[in-house]
Amino acid sequence: MYAAPPRATPGVTTSKAMVVSAHPEASRIGVEILRRGGNAYDAAVAVQFALAVALPAAGNIGGGGFLLYRAADGQEGALDFRETAPAAATRDMYLDQQGQVITDLSTLGHLAAGVPGTVAGMEALHKKRGKLPWATLVQPAVDLAAKGLALTQKEATGLTSNQAGFRKYNGSAPLAYLRPAGARPWQQGDVIRYPDLARTLERIRDQGRAGFYEGPTADFIVAEMQRGRGIITKQDLQAYQPKWRTPLHGQYRGYDVLTFPPPSSGGVALLQLLQMLEPCDLRAAGWHSPAAVHLITEAQRRVYADRATFLGDPDFGRVPTARLLDKGYTRQRMATTRPHRATASKDMAAGTGLPGYESDQTTHYSIVDAQGNAVSCTTTLNGGYGSKVVVAGAGFLLNNEMDDFSAKPGVPNSYGLVGGVANAIAPGKRMLSSMTPAILLQNNQLKMVVGTPGGSTIITSVLQAILHVVDYDMPMQQAVAAPRLHHQWLPDQIDVEENALLPMTIDSLRQRGYILKPRSAWGRIDAIRVLPDGRLESGADPRGDDSAQGY
Ligand code: GLY
Predict the structure, then answer these.
(1) pTM for this entry
(2) Alpha-carbon distance 146 to 119, whole Å?
């Protein structure tokens, strides 16, 4: 009865190479680069810049991200191009004189922006792993911005619902995203051209990171900051450095799981969850059965409590990654689970607040090239359209990533996540993230590339994609499309997508003490699975405009 979710339209299968991203134009450009002899890293650079044009809600040059790779020869790397707090940032910068969090200050407008990392990150990737010339990889995005492209229905809706924000946080400079006062709303098929963004991308094409962090683009950013009382300076821009980190490894039912270390909380949390669930026979319990949901939820509750307490930027304090991933520790955490009864989050660890959710706009792309190199990259402005601030003259949106810091211990951010000292604001520090790019291997062979946007839900969505394939034998597309559940310790509730649970399962979970909250669809998982015969099978999330292409 609980054996499987509704059937999904089959994914795409290709024999050699594949790009899955949140926009058909970005996937097309990535595949074009691969066909021209580029490798997966070249394609990643081209896709990243293409998304900055085609997907303004989340694609970016004004944000940051995490890129994980596993090369065909077994080499691996984790590139952290997360934003940093500007030098003038202070721990209490979002608090009023009474010590209360000032509404919207960390989410909207100039003060919400961290120092962007994307352009420096892409250059670092290209220098280390790229094959084709840098200009060849940036040019398709220049062309896209100059010629413009048609809005999808979802993009038209997203831009339309953000018109007030664009008006409020921007000056009188022309703004490609804005409809003139009194005009009809954006509609599917409307073509937007981005001349300022095209010129910024040209500078990046010609000068690499200097085309963004110095010269006219830096001038535009600092002028924009001064107009809106933001604090990012030329020194902040020049000082920004991406970092190469060591990927985390874990095991799950014979798979080696490669994922991202702190300042992502996602990698640690994903591996903790898999360790906690490995002793449980989820397959026998059945997909989304009361027993399986009970176990998965109790694991999630414990892991998100740990996240809030222990995780932050490892360059600013000790993050006890090894301890959190110690098998004895995760076993002991699960030992407090009661059969047939929910644990109350308030009895497990400190923390208050029952927030609402806001947007969860980040984006992910998965790439495998013909040589077998794999890239899993999640990149973000944080909220949809970030801070809503478009840098005048430069034509790109700035992130609102400062909200991923803990503005005040115990007070939830826009994802309802609480944090403490480990994730307090400090100059130059990276804010904690949930982004969870992951790559699965079996006997040293590539098996899956996966990741998603979704703020705090990223970790549980990636977990479910893996469980769906490994425990429930779903094809990749079905694993991605299947309705999802989410629990994050606080608020103490299971978020439930439409059709995720049978009515009798809902009754059974309520009897166990769970609070269930129906919630509209979240996440956009983009994944690639390597089939036993070596072909690639896509999972492009039907919740968005996501697209798998390849050859
Ligand atoms: N801004 C979402 C995240 O990094 O988790």
Answers:
(1) 0.96
(2) 19
